[in-house]
Amino acid sequence: MSDALVKVRNLQVKFVTRDRTVHAVNGVDFDLANGEVLCILGESGSGKSVTLRALMRLNPDSRTVMSGTVEVGGHDIVAIGEKRMAGIRGRVVSMIFQEPMTALDPVFTIGQQISETVIRHEGISASAAHKRALDLLDLVQIPSAERRLAAYPHELSGGLRQRAMIAIALSCRPKLLLADEPTTALDATVQIQILLLLRRLQQEMGMGVIFVTHDLGVAGEIADRIAVMYGGRFVEEGSVRDVMRTGLHPYTQGLLGATVHEGMRGHRLTTIRGAPPNLERVPEGCAFAPRCDVAEDACLTAVPELRGEPGHRARCVRLPA
Amino acid sequence: MTPGMSTALDRLPDVGGPAQPMLLVQGLQKHFGKPKGLFRKAGPVVRAVDGVDFALRKGETLGIVGESGCGKSTTSRLIMSLISPTAGEVIFDGQLVGSSEMPLREYRRQVQMVFQDSFASLNPRLTIGESIGFAPRVHGLAMEATRSRVRDLLDAVGLAPDQFYNRYPHELSGGQRQRVNIARALALRPRLIILDEPVSALDKSVEAQVLNLLVDVKAQFDLSYLFISHDLNVVQFIADRVLVMYLGEVVEIGPVESIYDNPAHPYTAALLASRPSMNPDLRRTEPPLMGDPPNPVNPPPGCRFHPRCAKAESVCSSVRPKLAPVADGHDAACLIALPGSGHSLAGSLAA
User: Fold this and answer.
1) Distance between CA B342 and CA B344 in Å, rounded?
2) CB-based contact A187:B68 (threshold 8 Å)
């Protein structure tokens, strides 16, 4: 795919300190088309957030060793200089986070934070930026927008703060929006509002979205495609329907069984025994093998290739090659 | 040692019999705020819990659900007597908590709590064995007996005693730490455990392990649970009855099937409809509710939900609805459920 918005090949991210090295991402490949929504599904420590940050080069510079190819909108993210990278952030690719209270600057008003972004990237006047900020708050459905522009982050409720952060992220109409668990900290009735808002904005603006979550239900509401991440690799990739109906990888099947949903009352929940791998060492072979009920010798010798249909593949030796 | 206290530290006997609720909560209120001082005007009052009544039966799991700020955690702390109520009382097995019949020391032997943050609730300087054995030692159990009880408890929660007894909390994963907290809660042989979001901080695969464990432990130790959570799916899995809170009040209470299949209160219905569908072909198109849960500083008059309610009428802003029966053992605090309340749909739900 040459017209892909995002092209990632053999992405590896290591965090190196004097005491230890953590292999957070160990070879991730994927493409994202314009206007597509990819959900990266994984548990804590699977490398999903690190992958997302790598796309914007937000991992701490001094300790991060990143290799492989990452292209976003035709820009080579791995090699590009910091100055040009700053021009890409916000304009081509932008990000929203789980906790708006820490992502927003507490000493500036919402309006100042939106205007700053627009002025920095588009060089427009302060009054034009103010008008743009008003439009953006309308876009993300913040009521009484004029008053809210003058508000500081702590004066807003959790849902409104999250909307304000989305407004900042979208202020320069990026082609790619990265979302790192943006609804996890929200109440149920607010979470569904934000998910529906993101879906509508994504469709209206034709953005590509990469959405990181640990919640299968959230992925089911928003994704076109799901990638399941474990031990720093994509272990399964496919359309949202395929993955949620017929997960191929034993880990995906375990997650589906372990997620509590309707009709499980009185039944015993399926669990995945053990705990995720320690990534101070790159696991040889399948990272999930120590927890897998159907592991065999072949699982331990080499990392399984992605197998299956072109649209739905998983890294498991038990699938037909 | 107090005379009459058993040195074996066994479970205390059932006093009131099977019909007596394990826990009876009556008119419970907690208002936070600064009273008027000599040089200070009275500060804003947060009505965190504003008149909560319910009964928890022996052997059941009662789930409490609601969004942030609804007062569910404050309720649990009031029941545990970790904070003192503005008004209202808690009656445990027929005996008023804090009275001479049920002094706090004895009450807390019978009621224990597990919190959401598994790390913050363990003393980082005590080993796992010391943490679990702490309360039995305080209550006078001998060293040897304590040690063997701790080993049995570690076994019961699925942690190998030899491997974990001498470890420290920071050496454990979140799921393991939560198992330790459950073991510690069991150490005094309680009859009721209050679980305040016990699985919310865990990964899904670990959450399932801990939920299975809670089901096992309840049967093995013959417990009752008060299970607080914002996750409706988890509550549906584990609870027998559910209590829904909104802005410090109980809006609906009843058996889990009845509430999940036929929610009577519009808020409960919206909360249930807000769950992600788990089926990409049945995606939601409209959010069931707009706006955020309001601040409990200045709750709206009348029904506290009326500003966000699609079925609200003018009467809802003046009359505060009381719990009224809508089905067998299922009550809702909505004027629609109350015949003759003045709402045009009144009585259409009544049992």
Assistant:
1) 6
2) yes
Shortest CA gap B218–chain A (Å): 14
Read off the amino acid at residue A232.
Answer: G
Fold of A6-92+174-314: Rossmann fold (3.40.50)
Q: What is the pLDDT of residue A277?
A: 85
How far is residue B64's CA from residue B244's CA, in Å, rounded to a whole number?
Answer: 6
Whole-complex ipTM: 0.86
Which residue among A221, A269, A270 sits closest to B277, beta carbon to beta carbon? A221
SS (H, E, C) B74-132: HHHHHHCCCCCCCEEEEEECCEEECCCCECHHHHHHHEEEECCCCCCCCCCCCCHHHHH
The confidence score (pLDDT) of residue B7 equals: 64
| CB < 8 Å to A257, chain B | 208
Cβ–Cβ below 8 Å for B204 and A261? no
Q: What percent of chain A has pLDDT over 90?
A: 74
pLDDT at B91: 96
What domains appear along chain B, each with residue ranges and CATH number? 23-245 (3.40.50.300), 280-337 (no CATH)
Could you state, in order of their start, the residue ranges of all structural domains in chain A?
6-92+174-314, 106-173
- Exposed/middle/buried for residue B106 (C-beta within 10 Å: 0-12, 13-18, 19+): middle
CB contact under 8 A, A193 and B286: no
Kindly give the residue spans of alpha helices, DSSP state H, lying in chain B: 72-79, 104-110, 128-138, 143-156, 161-164, 174-186, 204-221, 232-238, 256-261, 266-273
Two tokens, residue B70? 């609804």
Q: Under 8 Å CB-to-CB from B41, ≥6 apart: which residues?
A: none
CA B81 from chain centre, in angstroms, equals 13
How far A320 CA sits from the closest chain B CA (Å)? Answer: 27
Distance CA B332, CA A186 (A): 26
CB contact under 8 A, B276 and A193: no
Are A192 and B230 an interchain contact pair (Cβ–Cβ within 8 Å)? Answer: no
Amino acid at B255: P
Q: Which amino acid is at B212?
A: N
Structure tokens at A123: 């060089």
| DSSP result, A27-50 | EEEEEE-TT-EEEEE--TTSSHHH
Under a CB-based contact definition with an 8 Å cutoff, are residues A242 and A312 in contact?
Answer: yes
Taking any CB pair shorter than 8 Å as contact, residues of chain A touching chain B are: 43-44, 157-160, 187-193, 195-196, 214-218, 220-221, 223, 240-241, 244, 254-255, 257-262, 264-265, 268-273, 275-276
Determine whether the interchain pair A187/B230 forms a contact, defined as Cβ–Cβ distance below 8 Å.
yes
Q: Which residue of B has its CA nearest to A251?
A: B205
B277 to chain A nearest CA, in Å? 6
Query: Which pLDDT score, from 0 to 100, does residue A320 have?
Result: 85
Residue A227, helix vs strand vs coil? strand
The mean per-residue pLDDT over the stretch A292-313 comes to: 91
User: Do the chains contact at A189 and B230, CB–CB below 8 Å?
Assistant: no
Q: How far apart are CA A306 and CA A285, in angstroms?
A: 13
Give the C-alpha separation, B259 to B38, whole Å.
49
